[in-house]
Amino acid sequence: MRKIILLIGMLLLPSYSYPTAATDIIKNADDLIAKKKYNSAFQLLLRNDENKTDIDVVLKKIDIALNYFAQSIMHQQFALVDIDENRDIMDVRGKAGSYSLYTLPVDTILSELIKKNPDNGKLYYALGNYYYEVKLKYSNRWLISDKELLEKAKTNFLKAQKLNVYDYYSLFVIGAIAVENNDVKSAKRYFLDSIKMNQDYASSVYNLAYLYYLENDYKNSIPCAKKAFDLYSDNEYKSDAAKMLGNIYLKNSDYQSAVVYFSRGIELYPDDFYTHNGLLITYLTMNKIDDANAAADKMFARHPTWPNVTKFITDDYLGFHQEKELEKFFARNLSVYKENEILGNLCFYQAAFYSKINNIDKSKDSFIKAKEHFSKVFKPDHPVFKTIDNALSEYDNKR
Q1: Residue 66 lies in a domain
Q2: Which residues of the chain have pLDDT under 50?
Q3: For residue 355, what are the CA distances in angstroms to 72, 342, 351, 361, 391?
């Protein structure tokens, strides 16, 4: 069980001397944050602004809660903890532990401050950021819908911008929301403005590249995607940029470059089967069948129990009229694996393949084998059995 201890009262506060000037309080809090004493920093701020009236202190508390929480309950309550300087907050986030739990309804607190300070752009910025953070963490699971969260985020960021409080990140968020609303023209403008403020913010560069790609504007999409690839340090994000470059080059008939970037993407993050699929399609397009077969086997090996992966491979081969090679794919992999769920997955899509080429006898045989394998790992009410039984009944009725 998760253990969250609610700490309250003066006796639980560390023995720091408490300055009264907000700038000094925040400086001391920043010093504690630098030492990863997140709970101590929050308590320091809480002690010196119990009525939540000092705007800068309130904003600093919100900053600590959103960025350094160990646990979050609907982003209305936040559990904080001091950690060793050689650790990262992600080492404890979401894990069991003894934490201090604080109720901090950010939206309510900021809305009340805005009523009293309607011309303070920092408050609108913080509220816009809060709603967007909630959307990212609690998508479709919060107190209001995602659509409302995004609209509130956009509205508050735009109000902050009118008050001359904005930065590359708020411009990026407004652009990202414009993409959600299919307003590509506005999205491009905000991404470009974001990049002007920070040309090294990878997310703005990546999303701008993606919009160019959707418009078949390869002249602009390729350099943007390459820059995003260079800027990202996280392997998954970097792989995603490589995948985009692979798709751009594939769409632009530069197959050698497509192979390079799809392969690089797989190397960086091998779990994304869409990147594997891009490489398979590229080899099939080039009619490099041996390479395509190797790519298909590697793609399947990464997620051998995932039906979507096997379906993608099946559709790819059929899309390039490589029925014989697809038949070999099934035979080859059925001889490699021994696990029933994997064998059931292969037999199921082998049956679907035979059905598409009107080989009913082989399709029926494969469905029966799939059912035998699945029955050893799935409960009788699993929906796959209904699909198989319906197909077998349909075959029997045709006889």
Answers
A1: yes
A2: 1-19
A3: 50, 20, 6, 9, 10
